[in-house]
């Protein structure tokens, strides 16, 4: 008897919740702000006087607010969410169909309805379909990751280009990213988040109109 069919494993990709998308996007944006800070001109290696420190122009941006209020970021999350739901639906549908075929095969074996030749042929077919499903899962996962990387790059460039233009007028020495408690204490007057979000959305809308 070809009972090895009972051990057929149907691999269906587990799709994470939308909250994970937000976390990933938030992390990529936080990484961008961090890299911007690292690229800032290094201060001379010397003991700074109180006057020199006070002369610095510093501002900060709330990363969480960027991700929830910047139109491009919210649309980005929605696009990835729909892509993920499509992948989940496709894999679940094909996985369920294969599971049903495996169950039917097992029932026929238990009822001695198949010859050895028939069982061997069906088992080979099921193994081939399982391999195809695994390949499909890998392909769809790669497509999703490529899409995510594409939007991460676009989001990074969008914010970077805006801040470069924004700072031509405001001339801050540092623009810091504030996410969670990475900045323990800050003067609210240094918060330029609302100004940055308005500027980002204004420019994003005008870009959409041009298209």
Can you tell me about this structure?
With 211 residues, this protein is mainly alpha-helical. It contains six helices and two strands, in the order ααβαααβα. The protein has helices at residues 18-39, 50-54, 63-69, 71-110, 116-170, 193-210; strands at residues 58-62, 174-178. The chain has a two-stranded parallel ribbon.
What does the secondary structure layout of this molecule look like, with pairings?
Layout lengths: L17 H22 L10 H5 L3 E5 H7 L1 H40 L5 H55 L3 E5 L14 H18 L1
Parallel strand pairs: 1-2
Key words describing this protein structure:
211 residues; mainly alpha; disordered N terminus; single chain; 6 helices; rod-shaped; two-stranded parallel ribbon
Span of the ends, CA to CA: 64 Å
Order of helices and strands: HHEHHHEH
Number of helices: 6
Helix/sheet category? mainly alpha
Describe the main β-sheet briefly.
2 strands, parallel
Q: Biggest sheet, strands in spatial order?
A: 1-2
Helical content (DSSP H or I, runs of 4+): 55-70%
Mean pLDDT: 80
User: What percent strand?
Assistant: under 5%
Radius of gyration: 27 Å
The coarse overall form would be rod-shaped
Short account of what is shown:
The protein has 211 residues and is mainly α. It is built from 6 helices and 2 strands.
